[in-house]
Amino acid sequence: MLSRAMEQGKIIPLDGSLAIDAAQYGIDFKLPLDDSIIYATAQRYDAIVWTQDSDFKLLDGVKY
Q: How far is CA 46 from the centre of its chain?
């Protein structure tokens, strides 16, 4: 069952442009590197971040 759900995902390469966006979000919102990459990716692809991670709590496009 989990396998079927995982197959619906999409792998996004971390290219230079996305890395720069992630760095800027990291600076602007004081996010750790991994969180800034997740947030930048979600922003680029108009995705909602569903999380219980308090680092994301006040950011647009996040369901906490």
A: 10
The helix/strand count (H/E) of the chain reads as 3, 2
Q: What is the pLDDT of residues 21-59, one digit of tens each?
A: 999 999 999 999 999 999 999 999 999 999 999 999 999
Tokens representing 29? Answer: 């919102």
Burial class (CB in 10 A: 0-12, 13-18, 19+), 2: exposed
Place of tokens 């219980």: 52
Does the reported pTM lie above 0.90? no
Cβ atoms 49, 61 nearer than 8 A: yes
